[in-house]
Amino acid sequence: MTSSGQNQGGGPQDEILAGEYVLGVLSLPARRLVEQRMVQDARFARIVQRWQADLSSFNSDYDEQVPPSAVFAQIERRLFGNMEQSSRSGLWHSAVFWRSLSFVTSAVAIVALFYAATSIPGRQPAAPLVAELSAPGSSINLLASYDIASGRLRMTPVAAGRPEEKSLELWLVPESGSPLSLGVLQAGIDGEMLVPADMRERIAEGSTLAVTLEPFGGSPTGQATGPIVASGSARRL
Amino acid sequence: MQSNEVETLINRVAIGDRQAFALLYRVTSPKLFSICLRILRDRAEAEEALQEIYIKIWQRAKTFAVGAGSPSSWLASIARNHSIDTIRSRKPVAEDIADQYDLVDETVASPEQQVVIIDEGRRIAHCMEQLDASHARAVRRAYVEGLSYLELADELQAPINTVRTWLRRSLMKLRECMER
Which of A48, A102, B102, B151 is the most exposed place for a label (fewest CB within 10 A)? Predict the structure, then answer.
C-alpha cells in the first residue's frame, strides 16, 4: 500500500464485477448487489468509478436527439408542481422577511408561521411551515422549514438576534496557519453553500470545520473575528 | 458547451436553481435522450425514462463531486444506469452473481499497481485495439446498447458461457493495459 492516494486498483474479481456493472451486462438483482457494495465499500466504489471514467469515451457513440418539448414540462410539473414559477421568488429568499421574523420571535419561543400565505394571493402552493428554534444564551438559532407537500424538513442554523447584526461564518481550520473562510451561512439557501473552487481539495477526512459569529455579512477582515460557536472534524459516513 | 460550464450548471442545480436546471436540460437532454432511445429501443419508454433521469439529476446534483469524473460522463452514467435498470426489469436475465470468476490470466495486473487516470479516452482506444477485434466490438456494443449476456450471446451466436468468458477476460486485459 502506498500513501499517495492514487492506488485505486482492486482484485481481479472486483475489477471484473465493477467492469460488468459499468458495461451493463448484469441482471437487475446483481446490479442492486453491486450498488449496495458501493455504498459500504469505498474502495470498491472507486473501482466502479474508474471503469465509468475509462469507458466514458464510448459515450461518443450516442448521437444527439432532441426530445419532444412536452417532456421537460412534465419534469417541471413533477418536480415543482403547477403553480410556482421560479425558485428565486417567495419569501424564503427574502431578507426583509427574515428581518421581520426576528422581531416577532422572542428569545425562548418556538414560533411557527405560514409565510407563503401572506405572499401569493389567490392560488397557493402548499405553504411551508417555518419555525425558529432558540434557547436563552445561545448564539445560534435553528430555522426549520417544513414543506407539507414533500414531507421535507430543513434545518438551517442562523445567528441569534437581529439578522442584520450578525452572521454565521464557516471556516476550514488548517493544521497550522489561520482559518480559511468557506463562506457565510445564509438562511436563504436552505443551509447549503457552494464551497469556493480553490478550497474544495483542502476539505478531506480529518479536516476541522468551525463556525464563528461574525458581523453581518461575514468577517470584514477575512480572518475569524468572533467567538467560535461550534467546531468539529470531518469523517466519512 | 464547455465541460466546466456544465459543471457550474450542476452546482447551481444543487442549490435549487431552476433556471440553471432548465438550461442544463436544454444543453444535455439531446445526448441523454439518445442514450435512452439506444438502450430502450422504444420512444415512449425513452421519454418516460428521460423524465425519471432529470428528476434524479435534480435530486442528486448535490452529490456530484468535483474531481469524480467529467460532468458529462456523470450525467451519461445516470442515464445509462436508469435505462439499463429499466430494460433489465422488463426482460429479466439469468442470475449471474454467483458465477465463478475462474478465467483470470496470470497476466493480470497487481492490485498494488499505481494508477493515474489521465487522458483515459486515448488510453482506452489504444487498449481496445489490443483486444481481438470481435471481442472489442462486443465490449463496446454491450456498453452502448446495454446488452445483457444473453443478448450478446444471441448477437454473437456463441454459447453464453463463452461470451461471458470472452467479455470478462477482455475487461481484465483492458484493465491491465490501462495500468501499464
Answer: B102
